[in-house]
Amino acid sequence: MDIASLGLPGLFISAFISSTVAPGGSEAILAYLVNSHQYSAAYLVAVATLGNGLGAMTTWWLGLWAAKKYPAETLLSGKHQKALGAVRQWGCWALLFSWLPVVGDGLCFAGGWLRLSILTSISAIFFGKALRYIAVAYVFI
C-alpha cells in the first residue's frame, strides 16, 4: 500500500513529514489526488497546507527550544547560519519562503531561534505554503 492510497490522511502525513524530518512527496500526492477527482482541489490544498504548516511550526518550536539551551552562532551548520542571517535581516517576511526545499526548514528553525512573533510566524508560514499548494493543484486540475 502506498501513502497516496490513504487519501486525505496520507496527504496530511506526507505534508507533515515533508516539513519536518525528511524530504517527502506531498506535491506528488496532491497532484495524484487532484487528478483522481475524489475530493475538491480546495479541500486537498487545505489538508496539505495544514499538514505542512504544522510540520513547519514543529520545526519553529524546536528552534525556540534550542535557543534556550544553546548559542546559535557556535552550534549551527552553514546552512542554518545562512537561514539565521536571512531571518535576522527579513524577520517574519523570510518565513513566507518556508516552502522552499532545503532552506525552508532552516528558515522555520531560525524563526523559532530568534523568537519571532508566533502569530506572525504562523501567518507567514501558512500563507507561503498555501500559495505553493494552490500552484501545484492548479497545474494538475
Structure, explained:
The chain is an all-alpha fold and 141 residues long. The protein has one domain (3-140). It is built from 7 helices and no strands. The chain is elongated and about 50 Å long. The chain starts with 7 loop residues before the first helix and ends with a helix.
Category by helix and strand content: mainly alpha
Q: What is the terminal separation in angstroms? A: 25 Å
What is the helix content?
over 70%
Number of helical regions = 7
Inertia-based shape = elongated
Described by strand count, sense and barrel closure, the largest sheet is: none
Summarize model confidence as the mean pLDDT.
88
Work out the radius of gyration.
Answer: 15 Å
Tell me the number of structural domains.
Answer: 1
* Helix and strand element order: HHHHHHH
Beta-strand portion reads under 5%
What's the gist of this structure?
This protein has helices at 8-18, 26-36, 41-69, 72-75, 78-90, 103-113, 118-140. The protein is mainly α.
Overview features:
141 residues; mainly alpha; elongated
Task: Give the helix/strand layout.
Blueprint: H1 8-18, H2 26-36, H3 41-69, H4 72-75, H5 78-90, H6 103-113, H7 118-140
